[in-house]
Amino acid sequence: MADKTPLFDAHLDAGGKMVDFAGWMMPVNYGSQIEEHTAVRSDAGMFDVSHMTIVDIDGPDAQGFLRKVIANDVAVLEENQALYSAALNAHGGILDDLIVYRLAKGYRCVVNASTREKMLDWFEGQAMVNMRIEHKPQVMLAIQGPAAIDKLLVATDLESLDIKPFYAATHGDWLIGRTGYTGEDGVEVMLPAEQGIDLWHNLLQAGVKPAGLGARDTLRLEAGLNLYGQDMDETKSPLVSNIGWTVAWEPAERAFIGRYALQQEREAVSHRLTGIVLEDKGILRHDQPVQTDAGPGLVTSGTYSPTLQRSIGLVRVPVDAGEHCTVEIRGAAKKARLVKPPFVRKGKILVN
Question: Which domains are assigned to the chain?
């Protein structure tokens, strides 16, 4: 049976259509995915992301542990600063993508719902002697959109919220990160369950629109953000997944897991993950074959973009593929163009 977040009843009260997602009952929408998408682009929407896995790591060996198991380097973080990166296997494949916050005491990692058991087991297997790993289930709310922070202030006793992107602030038992998965401004708030339920209702009263998995997917795709298990997995490295920038090569002596394999691949990267816009009618979907002037590729994610009002996607193609390509949709070759993601950022369309 699928798990339920503490906000399950609140979703039902708001008209949420519930589906099983990565072993959790989550709202796919509350009636109109398009309206939810548009609310985030133009005003403010909120997502229950309590199914994500929060892992707190502290102790004298915490930093050394994370410098070993994460491709980016947590040693550069200031207190309350965050970074995005991937945990790799020895072959350089992506076990998961995650955000790491440096806290006053130790670190907080937020990993995907679908990889919870795998990542908790893997962290335990790599653990050093003088450190502690704690899985910390909490409510996690993503409040996103140009009016997100203003409406959060209305809904809480916060007087102000002056946080730079990829930094966090504490507020009692809350951790508020200036992060998100939509390409808009906003925050992700981690807090105890009862307080999280209260915050949800207060945000509703402040005019923040609930948004489900459907809008979350169209928003993240317009923002050119990867979905683990579709755009990247254990067989693909950061170098072919458009997140090579999350690998910290310096200092050269930091022997993070997967480094040797990445160094070998770096000499001759064969593929790249990039954006694709469909020129003909149709809808791009995961696993559709692509033909480029440099050889075949594959759509990893595809959808109809409410903002662009056309079909967009992410595609893995040969590294030297040119702009024009075709996609096989229901047996027909449809014209398409390769473009550099993101497609939309902070409400602005970035591709023609």
Answer: 3-47+138-222 (3.30.1360.120), 51-122+237-267 (3.30.70.1400), 270-349 (2.40.30.110)
